[in-house]
Amino acid sequence: MSTHPTILATSNVDAGTLAGLAGCVPGLIGDLRSDHAGETGAVAIYLGILAVARDPGIRRFAEAHLATERDHLARLGALLPPAQRSVLLPLWRVAGWLTGFLPALFGPRAVYATIDAVETFVDQHYEEQVHKLPAHGPGGVLKALLMACQADEVHHRDEARAAGVKAGGRLTQAWQWLVGTGSALAVKAARRV
Ligand SMILES: [Fe+2]
Ligand SMILES: [Fe+2]
After folding, report:
1. How far is the centre of ligand 2, averaged over its atoms, from the C-alpha of 193 (Å)?
2. Over the range 154-171, which residues count as b (16 or more CB within 10 Å of their CB) and which as e?
3. Is 2 a domain residue?
4. Structurally, how many domains does the chain consist of?
5. How far apart, in whole angstroms, are the C-alpha atoms of residue 94 and residue 112?
6. In which domain, by residue range, is 35 found?
7. Each residue's pLDDT tens digit in the chain (193 positions)?
8. Residue 3 located in a structural domain
9. Residue 49 is part of a domain; what is its CATH number?
């Protein structure tokens, strides 16, 4: 679970403030829509894993990460009005669920490789946005929220990497490529709709 105190301050970023910020930061609403869609997918990934995994270590890993992703989703949901959210949320839920469920059929190593690939992508995704936001004012509060989420994702990635294998076989590498590419396409779509 995320424990960053700076995140609490985002309750001060209301709809009017967000609209004002969007006028100064190009693509802000699209970015936040993609973040909200991504966290929706992340919650679904861990639900997909937990639907099938029996290994106690994987279940503990997935339950702990699920709590953090639900926290991220709640914070982004509090920020982004329903009218601004992706219309494709049901698709992101299904895609996320399958991204967790399918590797979980193959066992812990496949799950760790998947989370490594997902979180490597999400780290870069947040990194791009953090640079666009100012350090102070409401933009700074938003920046702190995204940086806190990013820090959690990096922690998730490192945990998966430490528990998994250094380099998987060709099939694992192809799956990781697919996960990274699919995530990039999903972000592109969610930025628009
Ligand atoms: Fe997250
Ligand atoms: Fe994560």
Report:
1. 22
2. bebbebbbebbeeebeee
3. no
4. 1
5. 20
6. 13-192
7. 444 544 545 555 777 788 888 888 889 999 999 999 999 999 999 999 999 999 999 999 999 999 999 999 999 998 898 999 999 999 999 999 999 999 999 999 999 999 999 999 999 999 999 999 988 888 888 999 999 999 999 999 999 999 977 667 888 999 999 999 999 999 999 999 9
8. no
9. 1.20.1260
What is the whole-number distance in angstroms between the Cα of residue 117 and the centre of ligand 2?
11
137 CA to middle of ligand 2, Å? 27
Joined together, the tokens standing for residue 57 give 């270590």
Does residue 168 lie within any of the structural domains? yes
CA of 43 to the centre of ligand 1 (A): 8
| Ligand 1 ion: Cβ-proximal residues, 5 Å cutoff | 39, 42, 69, 72
CA of 83 to the centre of ligand 2 (A): 25
Can you tell me the distance from the alpha carbon of 58 to that of 97, in angstroms, rounded to the nearest whole number? 16
Ligand nearest to the CA of 153: 2
The pTM (predicted TM-score) of the whole model is: 0.90
Closest by CA position to 103, among listed 120, 116, 90: 116
Within a domain: 5 = no
